Amino acid sequence: MFERFTRLIQSPRRFALLATAWLLAFAWIRPFTVPDEGRYTDIARWIVLTGDWLIPRLNGLPFIQKPPLYFWLEAIGIEVAGTSLLVARWVSLAAALATVYAVYRFVRARFDENAARWAAIVLLTSPYFFAVAQFASLDMLVSACITCTILLAVTAAEAPADRALRLWLAAYAAAALGVLAKGLIGIVIPALVFILWSITTRQPRLILAALKLRGLLVLAVIAVPWFVLVEQHVPGFLRYFFIHNHFERYAEGGFNNPRGVWYYFVLVLGGMLPWTLALFPATRAALARTGPAQRVAVLGLLWSIAVVVFFTIPSSKLPGYVLPAAPALAIVLGPWCATWKHRQWFTLLSLVLCIAMVPLALRSSGLDPGRLASALRPQIAAADRVVFWTRYFYSVPVILERTRAVEVVDAWAAPSAQLPDSWRRELAAGREFEPARAPGVLITPAEFAASLATNPARIWVWAHREDARAPQLAGFEVALTRGEYVVLRRAAPR
Predict the structure, then answer these.
(1) End residue of a domain, out of 331, 346, 364
(2) Residues paired with 494 in a beta bridge
(3) For residue 173, which of 209, 217, 227 has the smallest C-alpha distance?
(4) In terms of residue numbers, what domain contains 190?
(5) How far apart are CA 162 and CA 331, in angstroms?
(6) Which of 28, 119, 408, 409 has the greatest number of C-beta atoms within 10 Å?
(7) Torsion of CA 344, 348, 353, 354, to 10 degrees
(8) How far apart, in whole angstroms, are the C-alpha atoms of residue 337 and residue 122?
(9) Which tens digits make up the pLDDT trace of 284-319?
């Protein structure tokens, strides 16, 4: 069995096809995970619906908490192939393959084909990387940009003068894409890693050598125009984006998902099992050598530690933030695993762990309200009103392929700055950026009750079971229920 596997991966072309097939094999099975996959897919869908490629929108309201690169790419996929689970995840899948290829090229240039292949295998079969590769979110895209920036910068620093400038310009371009993918971390993380690596390897001169005027121009030309144009259309955007969503979010508490200092260390080391069991001997062997092997190990270790420590400082912690640590560890582990006698067994175990996550993911998505949308979609006409009651069900508009905003019923009295980090804050911020678009989209229970007498359209109300007892919904019948969610219906008068 292992001999056949070895023969299969000998050809770079066959290996690339196997890597692609491996990531694609399960990407279409699992329904949308709430909230992120539904949110980001719907934002991309609104780009296609409105033709507005400048201002990302959620339910028709501006969503400018995140930069646009991911949404642009997914919108292109929707334009070409329509909305589906695979199209929703194509950006993450492509970014994962780009990351694997960057790691492969970097390791091959410093070791050999076998070491590069095993660095790619370690990355592809790490459950953490495998899971995020099939998740429609910004994390894999920004991780790919950060990975390419770091590897290009290190390669440029080691390259002869006739090649160095082109590599530096490519590194700056990758950093610019990282800014358009997630913001300032597209620059901050690569710069931090490169500075630490330069100092640790006793090459501090590289820090100043990395500052290229033409590179800064490339970065500015790619990254700056979108921010300038949005500020012109939405005054106050730059402060909101950089001060609130970057500095305040990093330095202050009060945001979602607070975790202890242990969280990311456990996530990275546990998420890359079983390969991290070999991290200590791989590191010891690499640091005992000289030349490229040692420098690569130092880079990978500093890179992974810098990412984990940087994101451990704020109290708010999401799993995807430290994904750039995975390719960092792969360049440490791959060359050592290439000659390790247990590498095939570890490959088999890692494949089993990755595949075992699929039914677990399906089970965790079992109460997704999108399942109700899939069942009711044939009955819901384009002219029907779709209403979300005191909650926002991100995947439902995507599955129903709504061409107009759903109505979201809540109090809507408080400004976004006074709301907790949630869907309410997202929509309230969108209302503040474009107040003219909010009427009829963000409505109060009283406004909903008043509309029942003036708007005869058929109504479908998505609600939690507890919320479905609201007096304004007294005349509605249950159309479908699943777990904690219920869809109520009021038929149009004949």
Answers:
(1) 364
(2) none
(3) 217
(4) 2-30+89-364
(5) 26
(6) 119
(7) 90
(8) 9
(9) 888 877 777 788 889 999 999 999 999 998 877 888
Among the listed residues 299, 370, 368, 376, the one whose alpha carbon sits nearest the alpha carbon of residue 119: 299
Rounded distance between C-alpha atoms, residue 470 and residue 472, angstroms: 5
- H-helix segments, 36-160: 36-50, 69-81, 85-88, 90-110, 113-124, 127-133, 139-158
Nearest Cα residue to 321 out of 331, 332, 307, 300: 307
pLDDT in tens, 264-277: 999 999 989 898 88
List Cα–Cα distances, 211 to 25, 172, 207, 258, 435, in angstroms.
42, 10, 7, 36, 43
Q: How confident is the model at residue 366 (pLDDT cuts 50, 70, 90)?
A: very low
**182-237 pLDDT, tens per residue?**
999 999 999 999 999 999 988 999 999 899 999 999 999 999 999 999 999 999 88
Last residue of one domain, picked from the residues 364, 395, 424: 364
Q: At what angle do helices 325-337 and 139-158 cross, to 10 degrees?
A: 60
User: pLDDT by residue (tens digit) across 329-344?
Assistant: 999 998 888 888 777 8
Residue 241 to residue 248: CA distance in whole angstroms: 10
> Of 234-248, 386-400, 462-476, which range is least confident?
234-248
3-state DSSP assignment of residue 494: coil
121 and 236 housed in the same domain: yes
- pLDDT number for residue 7: 63
Burial class (CB in 10 A: 0-12, 13-18, 19+), 359: exposed
Let me know whether 136 and 275 are in one domain. yes
One domain, residues 265 and 293: yes
Residue 246 has pLDDT above 60, yes or no: yes
- The count of other CB atoms within 10 Å of the CB of residue 142 is 29
Handedness of CA 466, 40, 122, 23 (dihedral sign): positive
Is 49 within a domain? no
- The DSSP H or E segment spanning 255 is none
**Same domain, yes or no, for 287 and 224?**
yes
Average pLDDT over residues 396-421: 91
Q: What is the DSSP letter of 237?
A: H
Least confident range of 106-110, 131-135, 250-254, 367-371 = 250-254
CA distances for 7 relative to 3, 100, 209, 272, 361, angstroms: 6, 20, 43, 25, 32
The two structure tokens encoding residue 170: 């490519």
Query: Domain tally for the chain?
Result: 2
d(CA 50, CA 404): 10
The partner residues of 488 in beta bridges, in order of sequence, read 461, 478
One DSSP character per residue, 382-449 reads: TTSEEEEESS--THHHHHHT-SSPPEEES---S-GGGS-SSHHHHHHHHHHH-GGG-TTTEE-HHHHH
Q: 3-class SS at 174?
A: helix
Sequential DSSP letters for 285-334? HHHHS-THHHHHHHHHHHHHHHHHHHHHSSSB--GGGGTTHHHHHHHHHH
